[in-house]
Amino acid sequence: MNNIQQPKEGEYANYFNGYLALNSTKPYQEQLMTQIQSCFSLFETKGEDWANKAYATGKWTPKEVLGHVIDTERIMTFRALCFARGEKSPLPGFEQDEYVANAEFNQVHFQDLLEDFKNQRLALLSLIKTLPEESLSNLGTASGNSVSPRALFWIIPGHFAHHFSILKERY
Questions:
Q1: Is the pTM of this model over 0.85?
Q2: Which uninterrupted H or E stretch holds 63?
């Protein structure tokens, strides 16, 4: 597996500093695998009733949060693949609230969402194994911002950490 180093300044928009700051000091693959275990543990401890209840009106349920994380990881992984392969066309942003509303995550059993999350993470790690090291610093444009595959890969666990802390604190 490629040893994915933290991204350097200029490989991502300042907006992502918050997510990147939430990453642990563990190696990349270990961090991803630990997050899978933590997510499974939380959902399995709390159960289906908990997973279907938002903490306030207008907020997502835990299943919707997890679905949003999965969608975002798929989008970030796709973007990373495109840029690693040399894509020069700008990629569009996505409206997270519309994605969640159209996904109907509350109709999916939380165990199925957990398996989907795990499978997405394993697919991500499989992709990273096949990428040439030099392709990780290729820059592309997504949502109007310059970003590298390396940065996108590191944003993924930081984004998860952000939402996971909310799940633990507010739900």
A1: yes
A2: helix 62-84
